[in-house]
Amino acid sequence: MHTEDWPSTIEEALATQERLRGRVDLTDDLPELPPTVTGLDVAYDDAGGIAAAVVTLETAGLTVVEERTHRAKAVFPYEPGLFAFRELPPLLAALDRLERTPDILVCDGHGLAHPRRFGLACHLGVLTGLPAFGVGKTPFIGSHEPPPASRGCSAPLVDAGELVGAVLRTQDGVKPVYVSAGHRIGLAHACRLTLALTPRYRLPETTRHADRLSRAALR
DNA sequence: GCGACAG
DNA sequence: ATCTTGTCGC
């Protein structure tokens, strides 16, 4: 979309985060189990090429109802904390191609569990106005105790005295995932949805589908 | 001050 | 992110 005025320097990106962070709304109006869930992911090749994929699943049954991709060149370098400026452009383009407006976005990355409380899930939520939350595979900021080993157990993720997310066990005895709210959803609800999306594997079905599709779109 | 740092 | 063999377990 408006990649003309997209931040191109770290200073501009930081200023953008500072300007948009106040637009995050944590009010949760979402039904307990929205009709659909939309996952997003981006794959990279070794020549600056990137491919974004968005996949919408029916929440009950986790079957694919729609999927879209978008290929492009990376316009921002990877920088911890500014991750969104790299993945957002292709993701927004892919989202624009969906016919059905998503009920909620499940991002692979963090939301409030970010140094300035404005990770990818928050940014994506604010720009689209859609509910969004993040499910990260690895920790970024914050400290926590290891959650009990059973699926469904979690431990609070705290940073600077603030509760920024949850470390959630999605499978018995398997490494946990990092869940944080992004926009228009609460942490507990985000955790419940994450569990609904992980009946069998560690990562949400949305993320698994989007990951597979983005890699395929790269070729 | 130094190191670590989502994907 | 991506590069990769073998290996353990259902």
From TrEMBL:
Major localization class: cytoplasm
| Listed cofactors | Mg(2+)
Give the EC class as a word.
Answer: hydrolase
Q: Which GO terms describe its biological process?
A: DNA repair
Q: Which Pfam families match?
A: Endonuclease_5
This enzyme catalyses: Endonucleolytic cleavage at apurinic or apyrimidinic sites to products with a 5'-phosphate
Q: Where in the cell is it found?
A: Cytoplasm
Tell me a GO cellular component: cytoplasm
Source domain of life is: Bacteria
Chain residues that bind Mg(2+): 41, 108
Recorded E.C. number(s)? 3.1.21.7
Q: Which UniProt keywords apply?
A: Cytoplasm, DNA damage, DNA repair, Endonuclease, Hydrolase, Magnesium, Metal-binding, Nuclease
Q: Mind listing the GO molecular function terms for this protein?
A: deoxyribonuclease V activity; magnesium ion binding; RNA endonuclease activity producing 5'-phosphomonoesters, hydrolytic mechanism; single-stranded RNA binding
Q: Which residues form a coiled coil?
A: none
What family is reported? Belongs to the endonuclease V family.
- Function summary: DNA repair enzyme involved in the repair of deaminated bases. Selectively cleaves double-stranded DNA at the second phosphodiester bond 3' to a deoxyinosine leaving behind the intact lesion on the nicked DNA.
Could you tell me what this protein is called?
Endonuclease V
Give the organism the record lists. Amycolatopsis vastitatis
